[in-house]
Amino acid sequence: MSKASENRKRASERLARERAQAARRRRRNWWLAGGVGAVVIAAAVAIPLAVAGGGGSGGGTAEPLRLSALSTLGPLRPAPPAGPIGAEGVPVPNAAPLAGTAGKATGQPVDGIGCSTNEQTLFHIHAHLTVFVNGVARQVPASIGIPGAQVQQTAQGPFVASGTCFYWLHTHVADGVIHIESPVRRAYTLGQFFDEWRQPLGPGQVGPARGHVTAIYNGKVFHGNPRTIPLAAHAQIQLEVSTPLVTPQSITWPSGL
Known about the structure:
- This protein has helices spanning 3-32, 37-49, 190-197, and strands at 66-68, 115-116, 123-133, 136-138, 150-154, 157-162, 166-167, 169-170, 177-182, 201-202, 205-206, 209-210, 213-217, 220-223, 236-241.
- The protein has three helices and 15 strands.
């Protein structure tokens, strides 16, 4: 078997393991729902209502989640066609990256978030991020939060399968899927993810792009500093810098994500 075939096989096996682990966690959480799980559910409900600030400049101070109807934005440009399906079963935008990962974190803690040798599974959820600048799509690149990233080719495209360590917030594919894999159950924010990426984020800037930032959270307009947007399970987040504004895109979550 060639080295390329071996790499593809290892990447496929790793994806299958991740999806099997996710299925086991769902079954376990269902069983816990009648007892201890009630406490977990209560905590999960509280996350979107008030985002807990992380250490340092990470999440900012606690701020209520304020949303309004999408119609308040007025006419929106239609979303562009989805890109090709990537290694996680999610479309990869046909677009240039918002920013590179050359300045990514090197393994030291960021906003109280560590970088572990192995991926953590105690708290394992996913959120999705879409970015537009002046109405044009931008990619959220792979390998954010994975120093020393090693890329493997799969039948569906490249996948970052390993690295020196894994921050608890990271990306494997340039499809916008943020993996939240933490040894502790806590609230994480978009600001902490951008801090790991070593990119600025605020009401007037997303990475290197400057201009008024419009944030859309699960199909509604988010009011407040985008740094405080919660990375809740299956949250669909869209950041738009300047205008024209684009209709929010959403993904269909594949089994295992």
